[in-house]
Description:
The complex is a heterodimer of chains A (116) and B (224).
Chain A: H1 2-20, E1 23-33, H2 41-49, E2 60-65, E3 70-72, E4 78-79, E5 98-100, E6 106-114
Parallel strand pairs in A: 1-2
Antiparallel strand pairs in A: 1-6, 3-4, 3-5
Helix pairs in contact in A: 1-2
Chain B: E1 2-8, H1 11-26, E2 30-36, H2 42-53, E3 59-65, H3 70-77, E4 81-86, H4 95-108, E5 113-117, E6 134-140, H5 147-150, H6 152-157, E7 160-164, H7 176-186, E8 191-194, H8 203-222
Parallel strand pairs in B: 2-5, 2-6, 3-4, 3-5, 6-7, 7-8
The structure holds guanosine-5'-triphosphate (GTP), magnesium ion and zinc ion.
Residues 72, 74-75, 77, 89, 91-92, 94 of chain A line the site of zinc ion (ZN).
Amino acid sequence: MHELAFVEGIVQQVKELKLFHRFNRVREIEIICGPYNSVSADNLEFVLSHLSDQCLNQAKVSVRRVISKYFCSQCALEFDDHDSIEGLCPICHSCRSVVEARRAPYIHKLEVEDEN
Amino acid sequence: MKINVMDKLLSANDAWAEENRLLLRKHGITMLNIIGSPGAGKTTLLEQTIALLGKTIKMAVIEGDIATTKDAARIEKMGVAAYQINTGNACHLDAHLVNTALKELINDVNPELIFVENIGNLVCPAEFDIGEDGKIAVLSVTEGDDKVEKYPLLFSEAEILVITKLKLIEHTNFNLAIALAAFKQLNKKGEVITVDSCSGEGFASWIDFVQDCVLVHKIAECFK
Ligand SMILES: Nc1nc2c(ncn2[C@@H]2O[C@H](COP(=O)(O)OP(=O)(O)OP(=O)(O)O)[C@@H](O)[C@H]2O)c(=O)[nH]1
Ligand SMILES: [Mg+2]
Ligand SMILES: [Zn+2]
């Protein structure tokens, strides 16, 4: 049942992204989450497939579980406190794109089809 | 085309959770989120806590259930204000539902401590931040000592694990050492307390824990 809340989050974020990037269909959604979050790609795809929204109802979902504390969305590195100074990515030194990965599920990337 | 997003799936819920935290800090209230499976003894733990602490700390309870107001009625019978949320078929309380209850309880009773009894479920409630100061995991000995490992999210995030129905342990194959080891594996900081809510056994440590939680927020308020 809590998948409904996750899908609500996806719908909302896709709606906002459509204002900036012109696309008419989402082909793939990549989600990252912690090792213990109850996020299932099959369940999310199932709920998405029942949406009347043409943009999302054929989207494939993949879930990647991050064991470490942090995840860098720039270079996809996973790292822990001891590898980093104040949560900065030890490889690309990005700070804005580093998230605390272990707890909550995030949408990492969307693969979309351009208009026309 | 690929688009990098990096936004939380539950960002709408998290915004409400933040709003709840602001409300709690503004009014100097501590909020504890009680999570455990159906029948684990969440309401009974609260009844015994009210009996022992109701005169010392001004409390209120938010009761989450799929259906009925039975748990709220049990709490009110103990002389403490309760706000029942019926989720219909949702398996968890979310931060928005809690926000409505919180505002009403602040308005009506202005408590120092709010317990939220979440929907009986070891999985879904753990996914949702409601703005609480801590999650309390409740596990009864009749559920089996393997549950900590099987439902790791809750146990990895809980501030404390309260093992209930201690008096029944001899009638079960629950191995306390196994449950404790599994909990320590997942959660380096969390405390563990064993109680029997019917006899009151083990409640001194639990009451200390609750009082400390309230005190910590009172002290923090002084430094605001
Ligand atoms: N012996 C014993 N019985 C307990 C204890 N705690 C709860 N019970 C009994 O277990 C049953 C369920 O307790 P509740 O407190 O209603 O459980 P709950 O977790 O609130 O249940 P839901 O709200 O339905 O999820 C009741 O019959 C209680 O009397 C305990 O510590 N010892
Ligand atoms: Mg109950
Ligand atoms: Zn990086």
